[in-house]
């Protein structure tokens, strides 16, 4: 597809979703990104990425992209054709719902600063019914939802090669957007599916809850194997041979985690409201059951000082939002009298000040008698210290 400098995309929120999509779109269109974090903007203006992924870093340095990061809302929103909102939607346990305030304030800004006919595209994950509510509140039909399915660790590659393009609108402008997004995709055969807005919101929450359910299922299989001294690997290998089940996404772990699965499952449960269900509640509860069971098994090993090897959810990620291993070690620390330290050379986010944090590996292994590792890597393979892991296949 050739470059079309007459189309302007504005992107609000330049985290994983916003920045990855900006990099893909900026190969073809003018893209202006805004983030409330001025440090992120200053870094991006210097072509430095706050996300430690090669795909994003390389794209940012390429002279083939038309991308401007700005801390001026006006510059970002004005004369825009498409406004993409990719700000956070954290789950708020007090209201039992997502906190959608950053999305709402971005919609407000969009309607104020770009009052023409730009389409407002929400990519943040939102509760079912949110778009209908916003369109009614602002007496417009310009707000639509296009769910994002990228994964942290490969956000640029996933944005450039989407598994599907879901457009939660049947408007003509949304049809045009669908064909634009298809043309920017590396996968020319990618399906573009137009749905109602509630349905698009449901697709996102049900997709993530299915993934969490699958992790929870193999983790419960693994708990059963561990509790009955069976080989988890032999069982999973045999179960997964069935093509309907498949040999993928079946590696046991300390629990599902990351930014999205824990919060999205809770939001779906909240949306079920008066609809009868058993599975969604079980998926939400399963992580805690798994955590408590693993803590018991670990303490049966009677460690004096436990070393946590990495707190990121994935082997190639610098991000430990809602990390299952971190939740497990917080639980052990709060409930039992065991010393804990953490080895993590790439701490970028959140506060780990409750723990002794070590970034030198030799120092880390010098005075611990048990290592906990959600995922194994070469560093751990030659050690003489016992390692507690449930990683069978050496993959995420
Ligand atoms: N991370 C993923 O893998 C993923 C995948 C699919 C969907 N999502 C969804 O996309 C949304 C964003 O997720 P993310 O991982 O990119 O988050 P992120 O935390 O990486 O990035 C969000 C960015 O928005 C900025 N921001 C916050 N409030 C703002 C505001 N009012 N105006 C402008 N900027 C603001 C923050 O400074 C941050 O840089 C969430 O709803 C999430 O559920 C995330």
List its traits:
alpha/beta; Rossmann fold; 6-stranded parallel beta sheet; 5-stranded parallel beta sheet; 15 strands; 42% helix; 15% strand; binds nicotinamide-adenine-dinucleotide
Q: Tell me the fraction of residues in β-strands, as a range.
A: 5-15%
Give the end-to-end Cα distance, rounded to a whole number of Å. Answer: 34 Å
- In the predicted model, the low-confidence regions spanning at least 5 consecutive residues are none
Number of strands: 15
Q: Give the count of structural domains.
A: 2
One letter per element, helices H and strands E, the order comes to EHEHHEHEEEHEHEHEHEHHHHEHEEHEHE
CATH superfamily of the largest domain: NAD(P)-binding Rossmann-like Domain
Explain the layout of strands and helices.
Blueprint (H helix, E strand, L loop, with lengths): L3 E9 L3 H10 L3 E6 L3 H8 L8 H8 L5 E4 L2 H5 L4 E4 L5 E2 L4 E2 L2 H13 L5 E4 L7 H8 L5 E3 L9 H6 L4 E3 L4 H13 L7 E3 L2 H31 L4 H9 L19 H13 L6 H21 L5 E5 L14 H12 L3 E5 L12 E3 L2 H6 L3 E3 L5 H4 L5 E2 L8
Parallel strand pairs: 1-2, 1-4, 2-3, 4-7, 7-8, 9-10, 11-12, 11-14, 12-13, 14-15
Antiparallel strand pairs: 5-6
Helix pairs in contact: 9-10, 9-11, 9-12, 11-12, 12-13
The structure holds nicotinamide-adenine-dinucleotide (NAD).
């Amino acid at each position: 597809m050739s470059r079309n400098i007459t189309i302007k995309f504005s992107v609000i929120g330049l985290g994983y979703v916003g920045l990855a999509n900006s990099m893909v779109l900026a190969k073809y269109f003018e893209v202006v990104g805004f983030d409330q974090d001025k440090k992120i903007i200053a870094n991006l203006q210097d072509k430095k990425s706050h996300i430690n992924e090669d795909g994003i870093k390389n794209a940012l340095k390429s002279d083939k992209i038309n991308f401007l990061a700005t801390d001026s809302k006006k510059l970002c929103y004005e004369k825009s054709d498409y406004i993409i909102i990719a700000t956070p939607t954290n789950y708020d346990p007090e209201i039992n719902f997502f906190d959608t305030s950053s999305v709402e304030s971005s919609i407000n800004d969009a309607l104020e600063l770009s009052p023409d006919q730009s389409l407002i595209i929400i990519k943040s994950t939102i509760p079912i019914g949110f778009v209908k509510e916003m369109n009614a509140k602002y007496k417009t039909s310009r707000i639509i939802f296009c769910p994002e399915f990228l994964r942290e660790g490969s956000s640029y590659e996933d944005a450039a090669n989407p598994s599907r393009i879901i457009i939660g609108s049947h408007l003509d402008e949304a049809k045009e957007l669908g064909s634009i997004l298809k043309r920017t995709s590396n996968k020319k055969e990618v399906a573009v599916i137009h749905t109602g807005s509630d349905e698009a919101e449901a697709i996102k929450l049900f997709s993530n809850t299915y993934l969490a359910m699958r992790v929870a299922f193999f983790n419960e299989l693994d708990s059963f194997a561990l509790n009955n001294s069976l080989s988890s690997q032999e069982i999973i290998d045999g179960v997964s041979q069935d093509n309907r089940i498949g040999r993928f996404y079946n590696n046991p772990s300390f629990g599902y985690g990351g930014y999205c699965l824990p919060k999205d499952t809770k939001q779906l449960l909240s949306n079920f409201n008066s609809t009868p269900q058993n599975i969604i509640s079980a998926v939400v509860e399963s992580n805690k059951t798994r955590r408590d069971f693993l803590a018991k098994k670990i303490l049966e090993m009677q460690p004096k000082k436990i070393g946590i090897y990495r707190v990121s959810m994935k082997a190639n990620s610098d991000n430990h939002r809602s990390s299952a291993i971190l939740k497990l070690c917080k639980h052990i620390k709060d409930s039992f009298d065991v010393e804990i330290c953490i080895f993590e050379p790439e701490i970028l986010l959140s506060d780990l000040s409750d723990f002794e944090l070590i970034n030198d590996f030799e120092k880390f292994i010098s005075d611990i008698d048990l290592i906990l590792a959600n995922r194994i890597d070469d560093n751990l393979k030659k050690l003489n210290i016992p390692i507690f892991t449930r990683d069978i296949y050496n993959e995420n």
